[in-house]
Amino acid sequence: MTGPVPQRTSAPVAPRAPEYASVAALRDLYRARAASPVEVAQELYARIDRYESSLHCFVTQTRDIALARARAAEKMLLQAGADALTGIPYGLKDVINTAGVLTTGQSKILEHNVPAHDAGVEACMRAAGGVLMGKLTTYEFAHGGPSWDLPWPPAMNPWKAGYLPGSTSSGPGAAVAAGLLPAAIGTDTGGSIRMPAANCGIVGLKPTYGLVSRRGVLPNTFTFDTCGPMTRTVEDAAIVLGAIAGYDDGDITSVERAPDDYLRDLARGVRGVRIGWVRHWYDGDERCHPDVAPAVEQALKVFADAGAIVEEIKLSDLLVYQDCKTTISITEMFSAYEHEFRTRPQDFGLMFRNKVLSGALIRAEDYFQALRQRLWLARELGRAFKDFDVLATAGWMTPAEPAQPDQLDKFLRPPNITTPFNIGGQPAMNVPCGFSREGLPLSLQLATAHFAEALLLRAGHSYQLATDWHLQHPTAGMIQ
Amino acid sequence: MTRSYVLPEPGAQTLKELPPSTPEDIKRMAERAGLHLPDAILDELCKSYPAFEAMVRRLPRARVRFDEPAHHCVDSWRISAPDKPA
């Protein structure tokens, strides 16, 4: 494994509380009574006030709710009690229902929608003591592209002015990377947690399909949708996942199983772990940005140096996965929003319409063939996970890209490297693995067998113990 | 030698050879689907649909009659477990 490792071109800012304090650090500070949840929330809102006009991370800020929850957390901590996320600020992608709080899907269709009930994942965050800071920017109904004809502007990337944060969990990605929040909950149907994690230089984890409740989450594609954590460290992702994983009777796809302790084996390392390296997805069938391949290769060398066994493997081409996923996706999505497409199609944004309206023309036999193909591809992945504990590939094909409001969405863009694990339903996680020559974050994608999140997190944490990419943050100059 | 997990293709048959639908075809299909769209949105559909049509036509078709689909009645982790076919 050789090749130059792209290095960032500007000096990182040293982390200092609370803007870049991790969830784990805040928990320790709170328990030692060295920090106050109320003060942390107030300081983060001051930072949000400073940068929100540039980054557009929030659709709705929930200051009253946050301060009330922070005060309750403070009281709880004084009584020497604490839950997993007591006093930890977080945000929710604005497709996740919040009782009494505007939930728009970033769409004119739901511009004034105030749900009566919390989504399952918000109920978990709330029960764990989290402090809801606001509802975060997405693409319309977590699909399409950054549309400039919606009631709210798209989020922007804190690493470079005028650049996008990546796919639909864009507000969460930008907010966590910019130090506005230590954690957020995104959704991932084809890569919408992992792509913004890649382009913003943070950690994004798509759990096993069925592990985290989607009750009360506006649907993109029922058979692929997942909710998961977006954080700056793998350890934080483990903490948040521990709070949100679990059976929910209100989600028909929720899986009833004993909860895992994602922190218990986090530091066990990767000696002897078998890693299947899927290089041809980004450096074969499709060509990634020239800075991506050397960074991923260097990341795998870190694993090999830590005692993992790395072997290159071959799976079906990305385009095969993409055709299958997109056929299923646009059909289901049109079905979910059919009534509005029939009655008020002009109220959808152009990007969403362009990507979903065609779902009306997909024949039942085409959808059925895609479902058959999905089983075929899922079995292929299942066979690979029989021989390998972890699969590794690029987190995304390119660094962040510039915003182009005047350009229609790119239908023929390279296939999506995150989609295969949505097809298979396995957990997958992106972790920062370097910077492009332009100073934009690059990412490594790791995946494991179903419900092997503990191993996935262990592998990611092992990588972060050996590297410091996750400790580098955008400077104030970059954000503005 | 790189180990491959690609399962054998069910057959080379696809619909790729069919001619692309014309804007008139697309408008007829939209009408048959019960969509009554403003002209501007119908024009958008005529521009966006061909990329999806090409995608759908690349899907393999030559599957045996008994080849099951992935569906919601089977838990996702069972779908991909090689020793536990759905």
Descriptive overview:
- The complex is a heterodimer of chains A (480) and B (86).
- Chain A is globular, with a radius of gyration of 21 Å.
- With 480 residues, chain A is α/β, with parallel strands linked by helices.
- Chain A has an eleven-stranded mixed β-sheet with strand order 1-3-2-4-6-5-10-11-9-7-8, sandwiched between helices.
- The two termini of chain A are 38 Å apart.
- Chain A has helices spanning 23-31, 37-55, 63-78, 120-127, 170-177, 194-200, 234-244, 292-305, 318-336, 338-343, 350-356, 364-387, 420-424, 453-466, 476-479; strands at 58-61, 89-93, 131-136, 183-188, 203-206, 226-231, 274-277, 309-314, 390-394, 428-435, 441-448.
- The longest helix of chain A is centred in the last third of the chain and has 24 residues, at 364-387.
- Chain A is built from 15 helices and eleven strands.
- Chain B is mainly α and 86 residues long.
- The mean pLDDT of chain B is 84.
- At the A-B interface, strand 8, helix 9, helix 11 and helix 12 of A face strand 1, helix 1, helix 2 and helix 3 of B.
- Strand 8 of chain A pairs parallel with strand 1 of chain B.
Order of helices and strands of chain A: HHEHEHEHEHEEHEHEHHHHEHEEHH
Low-pLDDT runs of chain B:
none
Shape by Cα distribution of chain A: globular
How much is the average pLDDT of chain B?
Answer: 84
Strand line-up in the sheet with most strands of chain A: 1-3-2-4-6-5-10-11-9-7-8
**How far is the N terminus from the C terminus of chain B?**
31 Å
Structural class of chain A: alpha/beta
Helicity range of the residues of chain B?
A: 25-40%
Q: Strand content of the residues of chain B, in percent?
A: under 5%
| Major beta-sheet overview of chain B | none
Q: What would the principal axes of the Cα set say about the shape of chain B?
A: elongated
Round the mean pLDDT of chain A to the nearest integer and report it.
93
Assembly type of the shown chains? heterodimer
> What characterizes the major β-sheet of chain A?
11 strands, mixed
